[in-house]
Amino acid sequence: MADPKILFYEDPLTDNASFFRRSAHLGCDAPWLRVLMRDGHDVRMLVHERFLPVTRKVGIPRHAVITVSEDELVNRLWNPHADVNTLLHRHFDPLSAEAVEELADSLDRPAALATRALLADAVKKALEDFKPDIIVTWCPAPHLRVVFPDALILHKETSIFSRTPFPLTYTLDPRGFHFWSVPAQPTEPASTSDQATIAATLELRSALALAHDLQDKPFLEIDDQIRNYQSSLLVIGHENGSFFFDASCSYRSQVHQLLDVLENAPQHWAVIASEHPDCRRMTQAEKEFIKERYPNFIPIPEALSPLCSGQMLARRVDRIAAVSSSVGLHAFFWGKPLHALGHSHLNRFAAGQGVGSLTEAPRQNAFTDENAAWWAFHYSYPNSLAEKPGWLSSHLRTKLDHWQAQGVVGYFAKPIADVDEMQSRLLERSVKTLRTHLGPPLGLSAVPDQLDFTNAAWFGSGWAGAETNGDIVYRWTTSREAELILPLPVGCDVLVTIQVGTHGGCAGQAAELRLGDLILAAQQVGLDGAARLTAHLSKTLIVDPATRLVVQAQEVAPPSEGAAPLALISTFITIEAAPPLPSRPAIATHAPPRHSVLIPTLNGRETLEVVLHDLLSRIPDGVEVVVSDNHSEDGTWEFINGLRDERLTVLQPPERVDYASNADWAYLHARGEWLGHLGDDDQILSSRFAVVDHVASHSDAEMIYANRIRYYWPNFMASELANTLDGATFSDTVILMEGDDVARRSINSGNVRHTGAVILHRNLIRRVRDAMGGRFMAQRLAEYVSYRVAAGLSAGVAFVNRPIVVIGRHDKSIGTSMHHDTGAGTAYGTDLEENIGSHHPGTGFHFLGQQPFSFEAALAAASTLTPRIGPCPIDYALWRERVIADLGNQVAKGRISPDAAAGIQAAGDAALAEAIQSQTASPHLIGTPVPIEPSWGWRERISGRRIGATSITEVGDWFENVFAGRQATSSLSYKLSRDAIVDWVDS
Question: The domain 439-577: what is its CATH number?
């Protein structure tokens, strides 16, 4: 057949009195029209006569433009300013142009029928003898189906990506718009089983995420606000007066939609409002009024309004609400739950329908990777591909043939184009935007717009612009720290080499390369030549493909104004594959475990040889055990690497760090949903995981405090306690409390729950990191801060008065050595003065707490939490009473002299006097509650008596065997209480 004739039908009608609202579509269609004309097609564009100057502006030849006069069209309508497109969209099935029967009695049915007839007559007259085979339209066009019943009518609309910096894509649907479209029809497939297309979609997600993570974050202001809330919801603004919005919902405007969401969303959700970029109508006064009424409302900052803020925020929020929007498609693409607020193409795949779904139990979208692959590669046309000479002509001819032979059946069965070319086109704009924003990377592929990050690095903050000296390109640092952004491959070891040199006027510098708080490489840089910082990054370090390293110099002391101490020679940055460091393989990355058990250790071979084999025998499959060895000197590294168990992951920080940093290292690399760490002299109980799962399924707790058995190892330094158990009382009651209440009470407690008996959800750990500047375990203060902060940020806390761990007391335990003397941990690499915080040599503690750093940790936690949950009062008098009692206990045991105790108390009294005098009564419970619960336990266990077991392993076996029936989770009962008396502090 001859080349098909093609018509671009640009809506010649007014819509809500906005006469030129459609003129932007002429610019969108012009490149397609021109390329089709170059390929030999007879192509026309039909517009209202007032749009003629616009067609010339966008480069459409005059002979290709057909105009409709106002006399022929607008003045003959019953209402020239009616929502004509909404009227037609609601009343007619675009595929057949038949009127919808259920609207037969509608009051506006006569207007709909008359409008269709008027438009059909006007189109006939305007086109004269031009009979198109293919019609592209942005609006409902049942009159076109009447005039051209055999034509392929393609309804065009922006698709899954539609605004910078994302690639521009469109859909061409032969059925219609929104609830008429192919994706909205349950009878039509909207998924693919082609594995190559699915794999390409997953790669596309990863590459797009990486490309935009590498840019400076333009949304830090919003990030800072939403991290104070339990969840975040993005409400997508729509274009008021558009039939896409008006015909798909009952809201009068995007503001009414927002108010309805705010009225129904939980108050502990941050509700972010993104206005449509073409319809930003909320005034500052309106935003302030809404904010006053709904404190959880977060408007988009004015500086971000011109950007595609909705699409850029889609990955950063927890869920999305929309009526009809490409951002709704973004929700599907990034796997975010979507709440459909109207009736459109989104509803078929959304997690919930209407505002009522906001408070329903959390559900995932019905959308799958197979659906995402279909939408991205079968239904989305990259604009750059359609503009490619020859491609669109061939493609439309193929689609016309299919339409004439089979209609809509199987129309979207195959990808629009070759998957590799599609993927390249979808990435093209992102790469260009990235390069425009950050400049050309180092070592990028010779193909300009290929997203190949081999040997690539970008300059982040802290660098001046690039300069050249002959063939050498370099940059000066402008501050003490300068950031490098490296797209490193996740799951691989890499070797990074960076060449640095000093300014000619500097005597020299000490340069460091850091990842977070970890020093990866350090080198002195002199005037005699450049130095190379070489770092081997193991795959355990690369947890984010947009890895940000910092080059750090000494204090900036430039020789002259404007000079800086380091220069980076850009041509000498290399990133190459490296042989993996000795390590046990982690659990397969595609299947994150439900539970992670973490063990930070230093010189722990003696205890690990006892507990680790037994621990691995107690855990079920799918539980991850992460051991982080802090560069031990007793063969620990060799021992744990020799254990052949796929559930075991072995880590090592780049250098020896303090206990808190080593524990934080383990948390950073663990992948489980529920996480908790042990000492290397502790042992878990097998029932631990069932207890956690039961509590998680019966509450919204994100933090679980359980009980423990405490066992003194046979070689314990106090021989009278060796091979004994501490007294304990257990019950089957689980008490559920609000996190902020728990945090306020914990601030005034001298201790925190034993580490092995505390379990946290990984989302809570993430929020703690955000609140504490990137760390979960606060340096030096460790869990004494992080557990308190976690409680304050958690949705709920559960207290389970049932043991899930055997806590070991060994000579090398940090807690043990603090109660002994400052030198007790020296043989095990624990420096109490430097790493723990004792300020009184010979005592192991100071006036402000049973633990030397406990009071300092309480102050740090209160400072972190107060802006988020309100006042966390410190009861200084309570601290003084507790410490005086503890001092008396230490004197009675002969560990310090009465004179020393008196001196410590006098110093403490002086330090606390002003604070005690100024403190006011707290409206909240504070202090250390005491349990009043029915007891059950061990008749065999008498505190201070030796037991019939000779190891921590036997203690665990004995308890599980004797009390297995009472450990059944079915016996747990739950009680909600804000003021319950709970013994959650170990005495």
Answer: 2.60.120
